[in-house]
Amino acid sequence: MLTQCAQAVASYDQRNTNELLKQIRQHSSQFGDGLQRLAHYFANGLEIRLAAETPSYKPLDMATAGNGLEIRLAAETPSYKPLDMATAGDMLKAYKLFITSSPLQRLTNMLLTKTIFRLVENESSVHIIDFGICYGFQWPCLIKKLSLRPGGPPKLRITGIDLPRAGFRPAERVEETGRRLENYCKKFDVPFEYNCIAHKWETIRIEDLKIDRNEITVVSCLYRLKNLPDETVAANCPREALLKLIRKINPKIFFHGVVNGSYSAPFFLTRFREALYHFSSLFDMFEANV
Questions:
Q1: Which of 136, 153, 156, 285, CA to CA, is 20 to 30 A from 277?
Q2: Where is the stretch described as VHIID (predicted)?
Q3: What's the Cα-to-Cα distance from 208 to each of 162, 245, 261, rounded to whole Å?
Q4: Which pLDDT tens digit goes with each residue over 155-177?
């Protein structure tokens, strides 16, 4: 039924979309089992997508779209908060739940920390270029481990890169991440330097990264290339441009986490089905472990 609703959304069929959403909401719940929760959040996403792309669209129980839809979702779901309004504290709680429920992210972070620590065992400086740094929750474990290195920690330089946010302060989240990491480094006496970049990744030049060939350079891009269109969309695609940039950087090591799915496909229905398969597995995992 979710796939049928996505087909109606893709064709801007408001009548069928509303009818299918009514049926989905009768069998979904934010407090139900994994399948019911999945249906609840995907139904919200489909309705928001149609409201955003169709100015004349009227949500199920309201006469207005746009912000009105967000208000209704907030009223129905006390814990609901649009992603752009979520604080670092909110995201940290969600991240903690995720890593305690799934071994995947924990294993990724452990591999990241151990490999970089061995790499800089006898080095005085390391430069980490993180494409998709987000809130930077993946780096405190490394910072703490570096502080315990015999002979003292090396200088840690992080270039935090993420997509710009909407509004007057596109780099706000990346800057906040840098301040938190700086405070954490001060706590453990690790020399620290931070550079933030909030641009479309395919527009970043190697000069923006301030690379010093005398220090160890590490590039990390964990599970975020799925957000960049690939060669199925355009010949000179953003993903290809980013990979060429990483090749120019010529890092000592490149960490690349891959999500198994065609999230950058040019067709909405393809992306929707891939997301549905992926999150079905996640919600099954959460139901079993939380």
A1: 136
A2: 95-160
A3: 14, 11, 31
A4: 999 999 999 988 888 899 999 99
Which helix (H) or strand (E) element contains residue 257?
strand 253-257
pLDDT of residue 62: 46
Taking the domains of the chain in order of start, what are their residue ranges? 2-80+266-289, 89-257
12: left (phi over 0), alpha (psi -120 to 50) or beta: left
Residue ranges of E strands in 132-222 = 155-162, 192-198, 216-222
CB contact at 8 A, 39 and 24: yes
Task: With CA atoms as reference, report the closest residue to 197 among 164, 242, 246, 227.
Answer: 164
Asked whether 186 and 95 are in contact (CB, 8 A), the reply is no
Residue with tokens 């890169």: 161
Is the model's pLDDT at 187 over the cut of 90?
A: yes
* Alpha helices (H) in 102-171, listed in sequence order: 103-119, 140-147
Residue 63's pLDDT is: 38
What's the pLDDT at 282? Answer: 87
Using the structure block, give the residue that is written with the tokens 């969600």. Answer: 94
In tens, the pLDDT along 3-29 reads 999 999 998 888 899 899 999 999 998
Tally of helices (H runs) and strands (E runs) in the chain: 10, 5
Torsion of CA 47, 51, 57, 60, to 10 degrees: 30
Q: Is domain 89-257 given the CATH code 3.40.50 in the classification?
A: yes
